[in-house]
Amino acid sequence: xxxxxTLVELLAVIVILGVIALVATPIVIDIIxxxxxxxxxxxxxxxxxxxxxxxxxxNFNMKDKMNSDTTIDCENMTKDNVASMVHLGxxxxxxxxxxxxxxxxxxxxxxxxxxxxxxTDYSIKSSADINVKYTIRxxxxxxxxxxxxxxxxxxKVANATKDGSSVVNDFDNIYPWSAIxxxxxxxxxxxxxxxxxxxxxxxxxxxxxxxxxxxxxxYKRWQSNGYEYISISEFPISGYTKSDxxxxxxxxxSYADNKIRSMSGVAPAANQTMTWxxxxxEAIDKGFGQLDYHYFLIQILYLVEYAxxxxxxxxxxxxxxxxxxxxxxxxxxxxxxxxxxxxxGKHSMIYRGMEDIFGNIWQFIDGINLKNNVAYVCTEPxxxxxxxxxxxxxxxxxxxxxxxxxxxxxxYDDRYPLFSFPTETGSVINDGYRQAGxxxxxxxxxxxxxxxxxxxxxxxxxxxxxxxxxxxxxxxRTK
Length: 479
What we know:
The protein has helices spanning 7-59, 82-85, 274-282, 294-306, 311-315; strands at 92-99, 102-110, 113-117, 122-125, 133-139, 148-151, 181-186, 191-195, 209-214, 217-224, 227-233, 241-243, 246-249, 254-256, 259-261, 288-290, 339-340, 349-351, 354-355, 362-371, 374-377, 394-395, 405-410, 422-425, 432-435, 439-444, 459-463, 471-472, 475-477. By secondary structure, the protein is α+β, with helices and mostly antiparallel strands. It is built from 5 helices and 29 strands. The longest helix is centred in the N-terminal third of the chain and has 53 residues, at 7-59. The protein has 2 domains: 7-130, no CATH class; 133-477, paralog of FGE (formylglycine-generating enzyme) (Alpha-Beta Complex), CATH 3.90.1580. Residues 61-69 have low confidence and may be disordered. Strands 20, 21, 22, 23, 24, 25, 26, 27 and 28 form a 9-stranded mixed sheet that branches. Strands 8-7-9-13-29-16 form a 6-stranded antiparallel sheet. A 5-stranded antiparallel sheet has the order 6-5-11-10-12, covered by helices on one side.
């Protein structure tokens, strides 16, 4: 006769099974998680390979292998384009960028896993990772040029050198600031030659034009409950706008051998019209022009980093009390550092690889025309033209300040929040402002002898389209 288990024995078995379950469950969960991670990583790698293959086919003038009636411009690829190029299955593409014949950025979601590829490495991201945002805010009634750090920007420190010495700047290790890099572009080969850290990099123009690349980032500017906010994120967040990667001349444009150049050791080109600079800059290659609305993106990168409108106080005086325009290259030894080697007003300053972004010489900003103190803005380079107020040129909703002086407030239009022009004058922001009531173009930054008026927010809105005197330009590359 078989003996039945006693209650004690049954309880013992249950306890043992419970212990086994406690030990085994985390292991099984880890195995499942690792499997999901592995599948998502493999999917990201396959997508990068397939996108690269697709774009190589286009380079050989072959039709879209998924749809013979369409092709994709790889250099301007969007996340929505990817489904037309490769099979996605259950993978969602959240962000993608293709530059210089390769995928340099990819963010996907697969099996609830987020995988990010930065052009070199693949990594699993959490929802918290891709929702990091660096925000500043300022009361709409503030009489200070300073902003308050907010969100993930709280506690961050940003300094710029005033004498070439090392300083503490937390943003050196925060994207997108950490990924801003100068490089050499060979227009004859139509390709990048070397980044600033590589041996083939030469600032003197001997191997090509020296540009500074600003990577993709996402931004938002808004007003709410008596505050204005500006925020920057590495990844797409609902309500944020994507700034595609772009490059600007490390130096203000010079001119030699019938070519616009960006190179160290030469004087900026001047005494030419905005249209002349545009035409010469566009002649470099497809996707080139002169600096336009991207200037406002540089402004917000600076502002979120330093949290103060007073760019001279933060970055240095720049060339602001000199007797003449200085040649470029005064900040070459600073590399990608921001600041100046000598803060006496007679030496150049640099902001993250953009030398003399204010001071030394006025700079044209293309695509913006003024009429009766109202700005008309266009973001379509092929439509840029002076003295134009229709078509792609859209009128901002506010009237610019009608008195010259220093700036008190900057305007806000929720349809075009990137653009901020002075609406009141007074001693708050400290940068200068000039205006007139007719039809004009946009100059920024100030010049070699304008003293404390110079800065990233100095606007001269009183120069006609044939204005020539002491005005320069800066190369822009968007492809």
